[in-house]
Amino acid sequence: MDIIIPLLVDGLAAASLIFFIAVGLTLVFSVLRVLNVAHGSFYSIGAYVAVSIGGWAASAGLSPWLSFPILLISAALVAALLGPFIEATFIRYTYGKPEALQILVTFALFLIFEDLQKLVFGVQAHYQDAAMQVLGVSEIGGIIYLNYQLLLIALAVVVVVSLRLLMRHTRLGKLILAVVADPEVSVTLGINARQVYSIAFTIGVFLAALGGALATPTSGVAPGLGAEAIVLGFAVAAIGGLGQIEGAALAAVIVGLSRVIAIYYAPAFEPVMPYLVMLVVLLVRPYGLFGTAQARRI
Amino acid sequence: MLVLHNARVEFGGHTVLRDVSFELPQGRTTVMIGRNGAGKTTTLRTIMGLLPLSAGRITIDGQDLAEVPDHGRAALGIGYAPEDRRMIPGFTVEENLLLPTLALKLDQSTTRERLGSVYELMPELRELSRRPGGSLSGGQGKMVALGRALMVATRVILLDEPFQGLAPALALNYARTLAKVRDQRKDLTLLVTESSPQLLGGVTDRALQIERGEVMETTLAEARH
Ligand SMILES: Nc1ncnc2c1ncn2[C@@H]1O[C@H](COP(=O)(O)OP(=O)(O)OP(=O)(O)O)[C@@H](O)[C@H]1O
Ligand SMILES: [Mg+2]
After folding, report:
1. Domain ranges of chain A
2. CATH class for domain A4-284?
């Protein structure tokens, strides 16, 4: 039984990282109505940028505590440089177009990003674990925890709460909700829907890049990370119900725990658990845990 | 004054507005009468910038609306109540009313003033203010849609078939509210579309007839036939 608690923390920490991808995917889908396959790229780009800046900081002899602002800044940088640009150059032209076209365009974008990343960062794996090292471990009741993993779980909770507060209590949140409910009427009431799309997309990019950056201290980054991220992120978003913030959070926890259970009882099944869960949930509830055919999105 | 100069709108090669020209004089009420499919909704949606012109121009006090982005109509003081009331279902009635003031970043005192004047015109909205937009009946929704358009409209208000589907008592109430608006907002330019002009006799200054995308001046008496 002693092994189950560390496994649980492991599972929840992994769930937090998937949640960062899934929630951005879900946000972008509800506001822009585009299922963005390239979303996984922002996760891996966030990771690459974080290890690059982190590596530079380490070799410059900067304090390892600076790793935390670096992780955050990396995500903000990726979001600021790529969010508005990609929305305006590619995504915008797929609004209102058939889903097949949106998926093809964003898949093409994903492939381009994959090659660009190999070109810029090479094909070898990169590691930069200063943030994890500096936080150390704590021992509670004879069990040792990586403090960094506890931080990941706490950050995911912060993101759920912040997004909910943003949507419910801020001007931007209300404008986003209005555009989600009725883009056309929103425009006639003076809402700059284009700007709302751009901002929502950029928030999604930021969350994905943050997930990727936060993943590097424990798992590093190597080619293939983006593909893994989008597939898992999509599974989690679908389990939660596309467009559901809390749904994505709950789904991430369920997927995380299912992997723990698999590791405990049938390790061979661990990699397929997310998809098994997705299969079962979607068979019973085709619109996901929190979704219905006409559920309010976000 | 809002003016359409030879406005043409096409849907996939199909001309729906045929070089339409008319003026909405400031402070007057114009009713546009036309059968189903004549192009009333298309006319209003085009003014709102929701549909592109394939030829012609629309100007307000000389300013070409082609230079204004679609969402910029509200900032110019052009309010619009669509045919199907279109509330934001998850917002309360008051949040629906306040949405344009939020979008336009109006200051607190302007916001309070506009909301106050809408509640004064339509006291029934104050009672509905906490209700979710998605829970309204058709008639209530029409009233809130009018209120929301009035929150925006400082110069022009466009109402698309406001009486359609209203029970007689509600329609009468709506007409009375419109008369009050007419009375209190002397500078406001009104354009109301209808498939039959019965209820508007009291407030209308002039009538336009729209038929298969062509608009001509008419009189209310003629339009009744
Ligand atoms: N999105 C669209 N695509 C193609 N044709 C359209 C579209 N919207 C309207 N039309 C056509 O344009 C013409 C005018 O339609 P419009 O909705 O403006 O009529 P209307 O006068 O408002 O009718 P109603 O009284 O039924 O509301 C109709 O022939 C309609 O079929
Ligand atoms: Mg119509």
Report:
1. 4-284
2. mainly alpha
Strand partners of residue B214: B211
A 150-179 residues inside an 8 A Cβ radius of B: 171, 174-175, 177-178
Distance from A83 to chain B by nearest Cα, in Å?
22
**What residue segments make up the domains of chain B, in order of their start?**
27-48+68-205
For the stretch B73-94, pLDDT in tens is 999 999 999 998 799 999 999 9
Q: What is the ipTM of this complex?
A: 0.93
Asked whether residue A154 carries a pLDDT value surpassing 80, the answer given is yes
> Residues with Cβ < 8 Å from A217, sequence gap 6 or more?
A67, A71, A128, A129, A130, A131, A132, A133, A148
Amino acid making up residue A245: I
**Is the CB of B50 less than 8 angstroms away from the CB of A184?**
yes
Q: How many CB atoms lie within 10 A of CB B177?
A: 19
How many angstroms is it from B195 CA to the middle of ligand 2?
9
- pTM for this prediction: 0.92
Residues B109-150: pLDDT tens digits? 999 999 999 999 999 999 999 999 999 988 899 999 999 999
Query: How far is it, in rounded angstroms, from Cα A255 to Cα A251?
Result: 6
Q: What is the pLDDT of residue A217?
A: 95
What integer pLDDT is reported at residue B129 of this predicted model?
A: 95
Q: How far apart are the C-alpha atoms of A32 and A55, rounded to whole Å?
A: 36
- At the top level of CATH, the class of B27-48+68-205 is alpha beta
Q: How far apart are CA B37 and CA B119, in angstroms?
A: 34
Instruction: Assign A41 to helix, strand or coil.
Output: helix
In whole angstroms, what is the distance from residue A223 CA to residue B17 CA?
55
* pLDDT > 90? residue A142: no
Tell me how far the alpha carbon of residue B85 is from its chain's centroid.
Answer: 11
Residues A288 and A274 sit within 8 Å (Cβ to Cβ): no
Quote the percentage of chain A above a pLDDT of 70: 98
